[in-house]
Write a structure and sequence with these properties.
Blueprint lengths: L10 H11 L7 H5 L2 H20 L3 H24 L5 H15 L20 H18 L15 H14 L7 H21 L2 H21 L4 H22 L10 H14 L1
């Protein structure tokens, strides 16, 4: 028996579906209760699931996860339309306008139809132009200070990187990686000094300074700290799973620290 071909839907269909879900008379009770704040955590979760699919090289499910993330944008656009603030077309228009404005080396007249000369722009020039255009946009929004528009809700490691990159763009940065390494060592010394005093508040502050310096070192080494941390998390889990396997039928809770360390080192040596 032949299977019926799967339906193919468009972005317009998804927008219509969202409208139906929010219909006060015939919509979904759960969707009708939602607002910007209540779905924000779901949006973040969908972003993480997209990243997880990419890092697992699970391209089969990546399109599904991207669809889930797209649905979040459609949801926000429906809320905006209901309040007369914005809709999906306005969202699309604004991002298109922004990208046209920020890519004068591709669209010299700021229109989709314009084409640049065949001489490729230098990467250094592009970075300078990009930062200049973004600074102009921030000024127009009333964001006068250099770090004003960096979101507070960003993951801490990512926000630290963003803060440091922005500060570096105006010349506030270590000239060499060696200086950053010395700063990391300095922060370790300061943390150890506070640990010896037992001052909890000071320990938290110095530990934060150390983490911030480590992020700065990652930036100088052109390493994404979030990526490095996720890789370290994955390595730890992989190794600990092997420790549990090597323990046989014995629960790890029943093993001594020495026995666990012995198994841990055995796993490390096998990799």
């Amino acid at each position: 028996m032949n299977k019926m071909p799967a339906n193919t839907y468009s972005i317009d269909d998804l927008i219509y579906l969202m409208k139906r879900l929010r219909d006060p008379m015939t919509g979904c009770p759960w969707d009708l209760k939602q607002n910007y704040e209540s779905i924000a955590s779901h949006t973040l979760e969908e972003v993480y699931e997209v990243i997880d699919a990419i890092e697992r090289d699970d391209l089969e499910h990546l399109s599904e996860e991207l669809g889930d993330l797209l649905f979040q944008i459609i949801f926000y656009s429906q809320l905006g339309k209901e309040q007369g603030r914005f809709d999906f077309d306005q969202i699309t228009s604004k991002i298109t306008e922004k990208l046209l404005r920020r890519h004068p080396h591709v669209f010299p007249d700021g229109t989709l139809e314009s084409v640049r000369d065949t001489d490729a722009a230098q990467v250094g020039d592009l970075k300078q132009v990009w930062e200049s255009l973004k600074q102009q946009e921030r000024t127009e929004k009333g964001e006068i200070k250099v770090l004003d528009d960096i979101p507070l809700a960003m993951p801490a490691l990512s926000r630290a990187t963003k803060l440091q990159k922005r500060a570096s763009s105006v010349g506030f940065d270590w000239p060499t990686t060696a200086g950053v390494i010395e700063k990391v060592k300095e922060e370790i010394d300061e943390l150890e000094a506070e640990i010896s005093t037992g001052n909890s508040a000071a320990i938290v502050e110095e530990l934060g300074d150390l983490l911030f310096s480590c992020v700065n070192l990652a930036r100088h080494l052109e390493v994404n700290p979030e990526t490095a941390m996720r890789a370290a998390n994955a390595k730890f889990k992989r190794r600990f799973d092997k420790v549990e396997t090597l323990a046989g039928g014995v629960k790890v809770q029943q093993l001594s620290v020495g026995e666990l360390e012995l198994l841990w080192n055995k796993v490390k040596q096998s990799e």
